[in-house]
Write a structure and sequence with these properties.
The protein has 445 residues and is of the alpha/beta class. The protein folds into two domains: 1-80; 91-384, Aldolase class I (TIM Barrel), CATH 3.20.20.70. Helices cover 40% and strands 16% of the residues. It is built from 16 helices and 14 strands. The strands form two sheets. Strands 10-9-8-7-6-5-4-11-12-13-14 form an eleven-stranded mixed sheet. Strand 8, helix 8 (258-269) and strand 9 form a beta-alpha-beta unit. Helix 1 (36-46) packs across helix 2 and helix 5 crosses helix 7. It is globular, with a radius of gyration of 24 Å. It starts with 10 loop residues before the first strand and ends with a helix. Bound molecules: iron/sulfur cluster (2 copies). The site of one iron/sulfur cluster (SF4) has 11 residues, from helix 13, helix 14 and helix 16.
Length: 445
């Protein structure tokens, strides 16, 4: 990374069909079409070898354009930052249990094999830790998200005990707690929703599609469909003022119904508008066992269609692969080991997907464990170093990729453990980004 040159933040992308190139500088918010002749001159200039280019009026014009837009300098604040490793904000993820009442056909956690629930000692110490961190950082708030492994509402009493303790301790320390949950929503009855309305500010519901898609992809542990229960759970949340965002996993089975699902949500669930994330299935866990697939081309076409429909019906349609305008330094907290995800076994992972010692990536992403004697968590600095080393943007193929500032190598665990998924991800990310850049350019024609 010390050898960054303009070519690492200014990219030349060949435009399909047209004989033009696109000069794309995401950190400078610039995208313009350039001729192939200008492109030939730009390649050595961006590589820091402008003296190799023969002097000409065209070279002067290009140098003037690059200088006036400050394209030969990396904008302030974007230099690679090595200082934040292992230091997170006052936020944690608690994976309360590996129990789940569903058996999704692609489940990364392969629920139904491990029924561990966190002990109260681990939960209490995790809560105390994040509160102490907020106090020490001089923050006024802290965040806890219940997510990963299994379904937190399966252990409702335990979840409620945690919430009571969080509120009490927040009050003692004069802090505001922000509680979030990722849930399958099937167990959110009216009383549960009322309780959640009093404690949770942010809820995401995993909900894959219209009835035939949801029932096929996300059956319960007895093989029964869950569409009716999920929609009821969402209605219950809406009635207490919680508007959840939806997270849908896309497989080849449901890929052609994405736009229909958006229309359905707008009409039946979120008449005042809502948010849905469509993520292509990760090729891991039960998805790998069941040899499921998501065709990247079909995913992209249907995602773009769903997005168009969303604009018409007031639904925001997004996904982590749709990165235009979302430049970032890291993809997630797993890059710098800044996430603190406490597993039911009392282990701490940098990735919310790793919740069991048998999970893909467990050998890398676990970096701390609960200490029953001292009542805290012992962090292994060597393990943190390994996570950070893996989290650095790989030279090949990412450093010269035009999507690098938008994508930042995408999901670190996919890069580490799901190679096939990662290759498909690159196709989707690059194509969606290119399509968004071309759409922006065409708007200004
Ligand atoms: S590594 Fe991937 S799955 Fe894990 S927290 Fe980051 S984005 Fe999520
Ligand atoms: S993961 Fe793929 S799309 Fe993302 S920066 Fe790397 S090469 Fe580019």
């Amino acid at each position: 990374m010390s050898t960054l040159r303009p070519k690492n933040w200014v990219f030349l992308i060949p435009e399909d069909a047209a004989a033009t190139l696109i000069l794309y500088a995401p950190l400078h918010k610039i995208a313009v079409r350039v001729s192939p002749q200008a492109g030939n001159l730009l390649v050595p200039i961006l590589d820091g070898r402008q003296e190799d280019v023969t002097d000409s009026p065209q070279k002067d014009e290009l140098m003037g354009f690059l200088a006036s837009n400050k394209l030969l300098e990396l904008p302030k604040g974007w230099a690679p930052d090595q200082s934040s490793a292992g230091k997170g904000k006052a936020k944690i993820t608690m994976s309360l249990t590996n129990k789940c009442n569903l058996r999704c056909i692609y489940c990364y956690a392969k629920t139904g094999m491990d029924y561990t629930t966190m002990t109260w000692e681990v939960a209490k110490d995790a809560i105390d830790r994040v509160i102490l961190e907020a106090v020490q950082n001089g923050e006024k708030k802290f965040g806890i998200t219940f997510h990963g492994g299994g379904e937190a509402t399966v252990e409702l009493k335990f979840l409620q005990k945690c919430a009571v303790y969080i509120q009490e301790q927040a009050h003692v320390c004069d802090l505001k707690p922000y509680l979030g949950m990722v849930t399958n929503a099937t167990l959110i009855t009216t009383p549960v929703a009322v309780w959640m309305g009093e404690h949770f500010s942010n809820v995401t519901v995993s909900f894959d599609g219209l009835e035939e898609v949801q029932d096929y992809q996300r059956p319960d542990s007895r093989g029964k469909g869950t569409f009716v229960r999920v929609t009821r759970g969402i209605q219950n949340l809406m009635e207490v003022g919680i508007k959840p965002s939806i997270r849908a996993t896309v497989t080849d089975f449901g890929v052609n119904r994405m736009a229909d699902f958006v229309e359905y949500l707008a009409k039946e669930v979120f008449p005042k508008g809502g948010l849905i994330h469509f993520e292509p299935m990760s090729l891991c866990g039960r998805a790998a066992d069941n040899e499921l697939t998501t065709d990247p081309q079909a995913y992209m076409e249907n995602y773009l269609k769903a997005k168009e429909v969303g604009k018409k019906v007031g639904m925001e349609v997004t996904c982590s692969f749709d990165t235009f305008g979302h430049e970032k330094k890291h993809f997630c907290g797993a890059n710098r080991s800044t996430m603190f995800c406490v597993s039911p076994h009392g282990l701490v992972s940098a990735c919310s997907r790793v919740t069991k010692p048998t999970d893909d990536g467990a050998e890398l992403f676990f970096y701390a464990r609960h200490n029953g004697q001292s009542g805290g968590f012992d962090v292994d600095p060597e393990a943190v170093n390994k996570i950070v080393a893996q989290g650095n943007l790989p030279e090949n193929p990412c450093v010269s990729c035009f999507a690098r500032w938008n994508c930042q190598g995408h999901c670190p665990i996919a890069r580490y453990a799901y190679h096939e998924h990662r290759e498909q991800s690159c196709i989707i990310i690059q194509e969606l980004l290119k399509s968004a850049i071309i759409t922006e350019l065409d708007k200004n024609l």
